[in-house]
Predict the 3D structure of the following.
Amino acid sequence: MNTSQHGDVAAHTQAVTHRYTMHYPDHAPRTGDPHYAAFEAFRRHHHDSAACYVGERAGHEQCAGGLELHHAVLEFATANAADPAALHRDFPEISEHATAEEIAQWLESSPGEFRWLCAFHHRGHGGAHTASHADWSAQLYVPGLIS
């Protein structure tokens, strides 16, 4: 048995609460976005062959609810305030001087921006919109980490 200098910590369950305030910029309603049609077309075209991103890694037995399309990098509601130079560092296809309109177009038409998630891993307490990034990412590789 491997033991550390301080001894092993037994498996345990721990409640975790995160609380903070989001500062969303002004944005049009989702249905008013002229690029929404591209998002919907991608969703319709790929839905039949889609699988939950988390379930593909840690097992689909922890998935719950139907599949939903998630913006993996930048949520629609934040696109108007995104710094194009910051985006350019990770996504060189976006100009350092891109307009909010160009960023929105990229956001809704870039396949790399989309990730299929079951309802639990999208909006549930184990979801990308709920769990901390560190916890959400860890559950990709640790089955049953969040319940």
